Amino acid sequence: MIKGYAGRVLEIDLAAQTFSFEPLDEEIATLYIGGKGYGTRLLYDRTEAGIDPLGPENPLIFATGPLNGSVAPQSNRFAVVCKSPLTGGIGNATCGGNYAYGMKRAGVDVIVVSNQSAKPVRIEVNGDRDEVKFIDAAELWGKGTYETQEILGKKMSHSVIGPAGENKVLYAGIVSNERIAGRTGVGAVMGSKQLKAISVTGTRKLEMDDAAAFKKYTKEVREMFKEHPVLGSSMKRFGTAGIVNTTNGRGMLPTRNFQRGHFDDAMNISGEYMEDNELVGVKSSCLHCPVTCGRDVEVEGKGRVKGPEYETVALLGSNLEIGDLKKVDEWNYLADDLGMDTISLGGSLSFAMELQERGIWDAGVSFGNAEGISELIKDIGHRHGVGDELANGSKKMSEKFGGHEFAMHVKGLELSAYDPRGSFAQGVEYATTNRGGCHVQGASMYLESTGPLTINPQNLKLKADIPVLMQNTACTINSMVLCIFTTYGMIPKAIHDMDPNSLTHRVMAKAIENAGPMMRIGMSMKGKPMLWYEKWLTYITGQTFSSGHLQEIGGRIFNLERMYNLREGLTGKDDTLPPRILNESIYEHMDSGHPLGDLLPRYYKLRGWNADGVPLRTTLEKLQVRI
């Protein structure tokens, strides 16, 4: 077995309450690494087209990678893969906490949960004894994620759902500690199986090819992260919400259901404001992470809990025209406890508010008014009253009530908190990402518009190239499985320290804009490992990885996801953006919205797809994508 892997897949049949430990497929591990990649390969191979995402045929796959179980910074994440009940296409999400570490300690790389239980159940896995227990979960059913984990205790590592998953809210997530695999409705699939929790334990250790080199290099990376202006400074001080003032200043902070990109009260929901007025502690919710981006805040009646991330303060704050951080703290806690994605929650709430504003449908909530939102969030989690409609997401709501032109989703997944009219490459990424409108499947905006060395975000240069590069990178990161924040370290401290108004800065930015061919050549070269991703993989597995290897693997995973979506009926026609984004301008210098139509053909060509967005046979053969 390749080093870095436990070498086992745990197969669980909930209907029969049986299990077996099967060998990890080394060919799949070699081609797809692990995590999201391995899970996607299993999902494609084990399911027929057109299955019901909430039916017994949809497997729920928990997958780790070769870095999980190590002390590499930001490495203790797991991926969840299934067919998405929200989009009908590929569903996946990743999560921090300590569950990935627990899986590897239990000697398990992948857990495949098949079929459905007849009644609420939870599972305990003891890897040392090769034991799996099926335990009645009736007393836990209906409880929130906080109380559930408290009852289960700290002797094992847990992944759990809350009432949102139990009631099959289509954007329900799976929680470990205070972190959540939030997107695409993986928690609803777990709820459809009547599976409340999986708990894992064991004492197995990760085997490495060169443990000494890994240990030495990891110390160096930790020191680099500590000195880095983002990973070691701003993220520690302000968390992810430290970017609020950046996106607001650049006119791309979602406001009033993406009607605007600027919010006058942005400072009141920012990471800086949180530090000065709300913070009661700083901690890392993820094991072995030196960044400690988690915020602790006080919520009335609940005590000290995890504070909101950037996406949450934007989608539940500015996008609802709410500038009260205490309210956002409360709603974030409710969403975490109920177990649901705050991005899709915020997008669904803002869509409902605009429906009400236009006199189309009355959900009892309105822009700029916090009254009634807390109760509505609870109703969504329990599918009570109008909450039952919002639990289906904005796409299905628009199909029922109307308002397609301002339903802010791609492929059914609500947009995250970067308005693509201020970041054209991010718009291409939203439109083409296989799971829908999400930023952590690439994060093009960081290279383009929100990072320390940005190019012109509103011309056409590199706007198709950057998404390909970043989507491939994200596919490999989510298959190792690492935190996407490790990519911040790719831009060195010297560039962060550079005066953005200096001639040197302007020259470098212009040079990058014109460096598309060189960038593609450089990222395709298969030489020696350079970055920490490549070195860690090389030291752990004994196989040589470079940026070229990782781009190839990422492209393989991305194309397999694409083929899955095509099989499920999603086509190039779904590679689009909401009409509001395409047709309405938020800038005085722009006559219309995002120029996606000008960029999509080039993106398809770079991908090796035809004009309809279908991968060419030669592309699949080159990438060894078996269909």
In short:
The chain is an alpha+beta fold. It contains 27 helices and 17 strands.
Please give a structural write-up.
It is built from 27 helices and 17 strands. The protein is an alpha+beta fold and 627 residues long. Helix content is 41%, strand content 13%. A hairpin with a 3-residue loop joins strand 14 and strand 15. Strands 2-1-6-3-4-5 form a six-stranded mixed sheet. Strands 8-7-12-9 form a four-stranded mixed sheet, sandwiched between helices. Strands 13-14-15 form a three-stranded antiparallel sheet. The model has no long low-confidence stretch (mean pLDDT 95). 58% of the residues are buried. It folds into three domains: 8-201, Aldehyde Ferredoxin Oxidoreductase,  A, domain 1 (4-Layer Sandwich), CATH 3.60.9; 241-402, Aldehyde Ferredoxin Oxidoreductase Protein, subunit A, domain 2, CATH 1.10.569; 420-623, Aldehyde Ferredoxin Oxidoreductase Protein, subunit A, domain 3 (Orthogonal Bundle).
List its salient traits:
alpha+beta, 627 residues, Aldehyde Ferredoxin Oxidoreductase,  A, domain 1, Aldehyde Ferredoxin Oxidoreductase Protein, subunit A, domain 2, six-stranded mixed β-sheet, single chain, 17 strands
